[in-house]
Amino acid sequence: MKKYIALLLVAVMLIGLMAGCGKKADDGKVKVALVILSGDHGFTGESVKHAELEAKALTEKYDNLEVVVKSCGEAADQISEIENLIATDKPNAIMLWPTEGEALRAAAQTIVDAGISLVIYDRLIENFDGLTGQMMGDNFAIGEGMGNYLNTYFADYDSVEYLRFVGDSSTVTSQRSGGMDEVLTVGKFDQVSETYVTDWSSEKAQNQMEDWLAAHTKDEIEAIDLIVTHDDEIVDGLMNALEAYSGDADLSNLKLITSVGGRRETLDKFDNTSLGVKFVTWYFAPSFIRECVDFTVEHALGLEFSGTAAESDGIYLIPSFSIGNAGNTDMDFAAYRASDIFAVRYSIDG
């Protein structure tokens, strides 16, 4: 656990006291641009705040550094911002958090072709040459950890029926699902409906859960042992639907919901629910983006990166850990809430 904490806290460490040797722009500044997702709430909204705060801290630390943050909600807007940056500012480095990797492939290529260092955050652009690095949470390991946990949790069951709710069609989803599916006990776990794509929306997940409950019989509902999700906000929507359910099915057979996040509001929901279902989530924080900002800036300044070690092919994977109230997790709710990691994640509130 100490190893996890040490690695994760790198996300907010300031860069070491070394002289910058990156190439400077005409005004004497080393310029870095962050082209990221937009949002005023939830995971993306918190990520934007963390990115802005880290950019501010670094520009205050380095007199020769300029960082601009461009928040975009759509792929077309990100492409437009990239075109403008190349045509006008031509920064030394760009950190790109793409709306979806494949949609930004051509724009990413224009960055590399312009001789600008490119770092990708969170969502892979697969089989892409010329990147300085790609940084993200270790999504495959999260899925693998989830699958191994489920094998142990349901070890005494002959069969487990479950529903699956994911975020989107990005590499984040495919890696999390792939990691879990690779290790689940063959023949025991039965996904009884199609995978629900929520677009990371609590409201959409709630509607999907309500529709599923309305469309299925008492026996079918009571047969569900498990719900697998990829994000805590998805879980919030599912819990809203489950807690509001007024049909004749007994929901006590639902034993566990899995997720990714470590969101305090979701933990609070499970502390206060009247349902007996337990919860386990894998830590994946908006504050992760700080480490990628640090990496991009360090590279632009010619500094040696002191954070998460690179995996093969220039991919940097930020490690995770499990949090839950179902037992056998790395942290229970109380330990997580009392941790430095929790304080770092919610430091944007101050």
What does this structure look like?
There is one protein chain. The protein is of the alpha/beta class. The protein is built from 13 helices and 14 strands. It has helices at 2-8, 42-61, 75-89, 105-113, 139-153, 171-183, 202-215, 218-222, 232-244, 264-272, 288-301, 333-337, 340-345; strands at residues 30-37, 65-72, 93-96, 117-121, 133-137, 160-166, 189-191, 196-197, 224-229, 256-261, 278-283, 315-318, 322-324, 331-332. Strands 6, 7, 8, 9, 10, 11, 13 and 14 form an 8-stranded mixed β-sheet that branches. The chain has a 6-stranded parallel β-sheet with strand order 2-1-3-4-5-12, sandwiched between helices. Helix 5 packs parallel to helix 6 (171-183). The longest helix has 20 residues, at 42-61. It is elongated, with a radius of gyration of 21 Å. The two termini are 27 Å apart. The model is unreliable at 2-22 (pLDDT under 50).
Secondary structure: elements and pairs:
Blueprint: H1 2-8, E1 30-37, H2 42-61, E2 65-72, H3 75-89, E3 93-96, H4 105-113, E4 117-121, E5 133-137, H5 139-153, E6 160-166, H6 171-183, E7 189-191, E8 196-197, H7 202-215, H8 218-222, E9 224-229, H9 232-244, E10 256-261, H10 264-272, E11 278-283, H11 288-301, E12 315-318, E13 322-324, E14 331-332, H12 333-337, H13 340-345
Parallel strand pairs: 1-2, 1-3, 3-4, 4-5, 5-12, 6-7, 6-8, 6-9, 9-10, 10-11, 13-14
Antiparallel strand pairs: 11-13
